[in-house]
Design a protein that fits this description.
Blueprint (H helix, E strand, L loop, with lengths): L1 H26 L2 H22 L7 H23 L6
Helix pairs in contact: 1-2, 2-3
Amino acid sequence: MSAFFNGGLTLAALIAGLFFFHYHRLSQDRFFLLFGIAFVLLGVQWLLSGMFEIDDHARPFVYLVRLVAFLVILAAIVDKNRGQGDG
């Protein structure tokens, strides 16, 4: 049952990433590009969690992918709000 949920989470994250890439293509806004990259990274993290039996030694590397995804989201938010405090 765990593999089923990991597969669903992987699919959902990759579809969300594709939507963000689509909106980036329409608007050329870097915010959507960074969010698309972050969701693809989250999909990869769920894929790795579901495909491999991860022991305690490899678990930090899988969570490192999640950390990078969240840092990309944070960078996208900071980049979007930078310079908009003028008025």
